[in-house]
Amino acid sequence: MTPTLVRQHLPHAGPAPRVDPCARARDWAEIQERMLVPLYEAVHERLEVGPGTRLLGLGCGSGLALLTAASRGAAVTGVDTRVPERLALARERLLPESRGTRARTDPRIVDGTPEDAAAAPGEPGYNLVTAFEPIGCATGDAERLGELLAAATPLAGRGTPVVLAGWGPPERCATSSVLRVATRLADPLRGARSWRPALRDDLEEIAQRAGLRPDGSGRVACPFGYADVNNAVRGLLSTGLFDPAITATGQEQVDKEVTEALHPHVRQDGTVWMPNVFRYLIARTPQ
Q: Where on the tree of life does the source sit, at the highest rank (predicted)?
């Protein structure tokens, strides 16, 4: 009898992969972050972000959403604690030496918690809070967002809009099939950041637990487009969602399987195109 060959993904036995955090942050800022610009612009247009806006951006990362708000004249403050290399890029983009914004006051980038971004005594509180990092992306992201909202909403005035964002249904997000590679390859014991599918009422449940009142929502097309497959792999890996898989199986295996998963989305000219839908919820602080 001919023996059956069984393909296995053995745990990666070598040392943990060494990732250049600065290169990863650059890939995020230069390749991946721009995919969400349609979401930022749709929200800013709907809420009429402008010179009267005092915006607090939670999980601001490298600051592109803040930059688009500042270009409309908003006074912006970004807060984050996770990736210092991304915050360094946000400072490059936004602080006084940056060009091309019409903000009334200098932007603030805070490496800390929302409490660290509280307005000075005598200054008005924030009248818009945004959390643009989409949930429905990693296990535990909803809980983390709830903690941020609990800390941030006391810094805002009554009835202030708070914007939450999430992935749309997996059947409307072509990137879902690629992100499943992260879950399949990851060691379950290390999979806290593994991708998970979005649930229909994720955003409403988070808002309600935070004491916020839902007050409208919308959906925005945010296709992921890349110059080539290598560009797509770099962009997707910059999200950090594949890190548990890299730890479990190694960089080479993850690169190989992500490349294979991208094949259905490669066009004749070699570019990669994946249509996606993202959803946002506008909720309000208590009156």
A: Bacteria
154 inside domain: yes
Question: Which candidate, 81, 91, 86, places its Cα nearest to that of 22?
Answer: 86
The torsion angle over the Cα atoms of residues 163, 191, 172 and 274, rounded to 10 degrees, is 100
Q: Which residues share a beta bridge with 234?
A: none
Alpha helices in 32-114 (DSSP H): 37-46, 64-70, 84-94
* 57 found inside a domain: yes
- Tokens of residue 42, six digits: 């749709």
Amino acid at 155: L
Burial of 97 (0-12, 13-18, 19+ CB in 10 A): exposed
Q: Is the pTM of this model over 0.85?
A: yes
The count of structural domains within the chain is 1
User: Is residue 133 one of the residues assigned to a domain?
Assistant: yes
pLDDT in tens, 126-184: 999 999 999 876 667 888 899 999 999 999 999 999 999 999 988 999 999 999 998 88
